[in-house]
Amino acid sequence: MLRILVAFWIVVVPISGFGSDPQLLKKESSWNWPDSQRLMQQVQGYLDGKLVGDELQQAKLIASNATSSSGVGLLDILLATTAKGEPAIASLKLLIDAPFTPESNSKIDAQLSSILANGSIPAWLKTDLQLICCRYQVHHDLFDEALQRLQPLSQETSSDPATWLFCMAICQHHLMQRGSCLETLDKLLERETELPTRYAITARLMQADIKPLKEDSLDEIARLMNDVERRLALGRTGKTVREKEQSIVDKLDKMIDKLEQQQQQQQQQKQQQKNAGNPKGQKAKPGEKPMDDSEIAGTKGPGDVDQKNIGDGNGWGNLPPAQRTEALQNITKDLPSHYREVIEAYFKRLASSQP
Length: 355
Prior knowledge:
The protein has 15 helices and no strands. The chain is mostly helical. Helix content is 63%, strand content 0%. Among the domains are: 122-213, Serine Threonine Protein Phosphatase 5, Tetratricopeptide repeat (Alpha Horseshoe), CATH 1.25.40; 217-271. Helix 9 (161-174) runs antiparallel to helix 10 (178-188).
């Protein structure tokens, strides 16, 4: 009887309850893919006034291949076709395709600003060119710059809303904007089965990585250290970097204070337990129980000890550099390597504050 009921539910209910359209079984997404055919018609109309002859036919051929495309492929085709009819866009494409250097972003930003000020370039194309530049910045770890440009852009007017959401989530993830990042990832994954595979997999990994992040944890401190390292590698040494470095030291201070408080509480509990077991303060008889803490013993002995040769005492503590380095390595061998510089800076700052 159970098998009959299950079979009835699987076969009959979908037909009578939902109809034959499988899309009704899916959760409705809050965003949609744009009409790529309509977009390419816009591109061809834009190029008609700028190209003639073989160049126009070649550009239209590239555009015609995009009618079945969406997402990243559509953005790349858009850049390739419009670059053939607009010298400013062609110069931007050359900068994007060139190897990255410390000056690359400033050159691209200047060229993009020139394009945005060009009244002959339509608004829909300017939005996509900005998104292409944001994608470039994300690829080269320029998350602050990319996020600043992404935020005012309209996802609905972009030819590739998935790339807009994906780049936004990456920036929020690296800059540890946990709440905003999770919201963006949830929205992106509404169309998970339609996304490029690398988008879907990376989005799931980011979601699992940032969800358990807690404030003032070692995990957060490690991420802050990585962010400072990224900024220094890009040649950034300004106010933002100094503030983040100070934040790391402050969080370490806070963590050390918390550990010290826990240690004091444990010592107090231990002392209370000791007093509870010996309320009159009587000392244990010899051989009855070892002493919990150092104190003057109630027993007497001759005090004779074997003489040991401990060598020359001169220079005690003045280890040779190699041995001193080895000793320090042994002390910090259980610490993650990326903690050491910040912890060393902490102790240097602590030493400089001594009277």
